[in-house]
Amino acid sequence: MNSGRNGWTWEYAGYVPERERLVEALCTLGNGRFATRGSAPECAAGTVHYPGTYLAGCYDRRTSLVEGRTVENEDLVNLPNWTLLRYRPLPEGVAAGPWLSPDSGELRHYGVRLDLRRGILHRDLLFRDARGRGLRVGHTRIVHMGDPGLAAQRTTFHAYGWQGEIEVESVLDGDVANTGVERYRHLESRHLSGHRTALSSGGVAGLSCRTDDPGHLIALAVRTDTSPERPARTIGTSTGTVQAYRLPIARGRPAWCTKTLALRTSSDRPPGDPLAAAVEAATHAAAFPALRAAHEAAWRRLWEEGELHVPGEAGRILRLHLFHLLQTLSPHTADLDVGVPARGLHGEAYRGHVFWDELFVLPYLGLHFPEVARALLMYRHRRLPAAREAARRAGLRGAMYPWQSGGSGNEETQETHLNPRSGRWLPDHSRLQRHVGSAVAHNVWKYARATGDRGFLHGEGAEILLEVARFWAGAAVLDPALGRYRVRGVVGPDEYHDAYPGAEVPGVDDNAYTNVTAAWVLARGLDLLGELPLARREELCGRLALDDEDLARWDDVSRRLHVPFHQGVISQFEGFGELAELDWEAYRARYGDIRRLDRILEAEGDTVNRYQASKQADTLMLGYLFRPDELAGLFARLGHRLDGDTWRSTVDYYLRRTSHGSTLSTLVHGWVLARLKGAAAWRYCEEALLSDVADVQGGTTGEGIHLGAMAGTIDLVERGITGLEASPEGLRVDPVALRELPRFAFTLSCGGHRGVRLRMLPARLGVRVPAGPGGPFSLVLPGERRFTVLPGEERWFRL
């Protein structure tokens, strides 16, 4: 892998089959509406290659029989493969040979280059047979950022040492399944049925099909153009189409073939026949050079709004991360009803579900693309009825958001999961991660403070936040002996500990992160009610049946939720300090990589529930969400003194007991240590940067990128190191020095201004506000020093 000389290209030289799935994921192209993996056009799905195209929010529900029990899963659907292109040279007087591909023995050169600036994927191949006849093939692919329903792929052929024809088959293949994750091989993988083809003049082939539940109708149409122009021999199959061409070729006389895709669905507005609409769009789409030019212009606009400039290798990786964030959640996302898919639109891991990753994604979007952040919060609001119903079934009021969400907003977490190390199917209790509701409420509050969008906060946002507060007020039960409220039977962000050792009932009690964030939600709920206009307050209190007694309980619970401690540190949950210590060095010596310690121990017949061992940041997530003064204030409200020494001791304690089995873990540890000015901060930050590009989790990136970790590394620079917080008082900046990242720059939207540029240098901060009709830009620096920067002005400040 080479990140390119100018920092704007990501390159892979040579064909390495074992690396191909990683290349496909990291070279995925998308536009927020759909994405196509960066697979070789020559190859169908198999053990090495896995082409995939995914439409945001397009899920299908299927049932499977696993070890005698029926299991239901909702999956992000792999759509028909529009990229497939078969070809072979036909030299004069020589019989046709096999179709060529990267796996052909004649392959002499293979290179993949992703152009981040322009959103273009290039793939170059050179084949040479035993008689020295050469064929150079170049693929150029775009998924159009300007028109979210279009994509295109141009393939150019150059002959060396021969002349004749190149035989080409442009394929639209609907015989696809969700087989991109080996762990899911026991589950039903076919999601498309009712295939219908349409062939029209002008080289356009169309295909429609539908999912089963909820029944999305999907249509793809591909227009194939060639040079020299030749008529197609068209073949229709039960699940797709093939358009075959024979193009004359000779040295100095190249040939090319372009596939232009139009994608339409039954969810499009205004409604219509998706297949007819797709065929029409493909027929009238511009030629490839014009499509490419408009696509590049759209990317230029995106980079202007989302600029982040960090020198060196870290900056190149951050740019790749930002590229994938922008093509998963682009301005087009603002028009859709979708959430944040934890693995992007890049693969099938986690079945395309929405977890809590917007906690790591929305801070960036709120500062750069606030309309996209708002749309993602509206996804949660539209699923508020499902969250209310989940709470009702649990015997509680309010809203209980699911740990895994998809199309409907119901709980999509599987009830069993496979340990690939032992081959055993095990109960999955991760749905007990009730803290996801607090994350949703936190996102609502922080978005409103960063953007000043009081309309949303007082409208849909208030409904979300107050319903989550209502849930926590009921979920907390007073323990008279302790004199505090307790939340029992949950799973924290750690995920390893889903029960006490030997317990028959799942869950642990009083997870510190869960309880502290619940207290925060309750306190913010009271604050919000206090600032609402009287009419809106009365409307919400009436609709939610909130009276003075309820609000008094909110206040009481927010002050008396139990937070356990042991040995002078915050306990991850009640009883954590009583668990056995793990011999970490022995396990590292025996297994090397122990990130998935839970799987290792289960395969040994043991359980991680017995040990003081965490998969990822749990208690330390509090240091990610809250500034030190905020966290100290929260604990003071709960009746505890959390000083700097106690927090440092807590950080040190869990650093030694965490296996980092999630890509989010090193990100959070790096953030927390950077804010504490810890010596090891960069080690964790660096691993977070490398999580996907180096595939540190051992093969998981090929199943889909880790979008939360990618966005979180960007946010680490923009907010973590700078101590930046956008608020109604202005932009607060309280930086910490990180020697490995001494200087960087980025733009943001804040205080009614778009395109505000910040430049961080050692001990100095530059702020430039674009000229415009807005008022002065307010800035708050350490020591509560307050300044303003006028539109059209640039000022520098000492830190």
TrEMBL record:
Query: By its UniProt entry, which Gene3D superfamilies does this protein fall under?
Result: 1.50.10.10, Glycoside hydrolase, family 65, N-terminal domain
UniProt keyword Transmembrane helix present: no
Kindly provide the name given to this protein in its UniProt entry.
Glycoside hydrolase family 65 protein
Describe the family membership recorded for this protein in Swiss-Prot or TrEMBL: Belongs to the glycosyl hydrolase 65 family.
Sequence ranges assigned to domain Glycoside hydrolase family 65 N-terminal in this UniProt record: 12-266
Organism domain of life = Bacteria
InterPro entries found in the cross-reference section: 6-hairpin_glycosidase_sf, 6hp_glycosidase-like_sf, Gal_mutarotase_sf_dom, GH65_N, Glyco_hydro_65_M, Glyco_hydro_65_N, Malt_Pase/Glycosyl_Hdrlase
Instruction: Describe the location of the Glycoside hydrolase family 65 central catalytic domain by residue ranges.
Output: 319-714
Q: Which keywords label this protein?
A: Glycosyltransferase, Hydrolase, Transferase
The secretion signal range is none
Which is an annotated GO molecular function term of this record? hydrolase activity
In terms of Pfam families, this protein maps to: Glyco_hydro_65m (PF03632), Glyco_hydro_65N (PF03636)
Q: Give the PANTHER family listed for this entry.
A: GLYCOSYL HYDROLASE-RELATED (PTHR11051), PROTEIN-GLUCOSYLGALACTOSYLHYDROXYLYSINE GLUCOSIDASE (PTHR11051:SF8)
Q: Keyword check for Transferase, yes or no.
A: yes
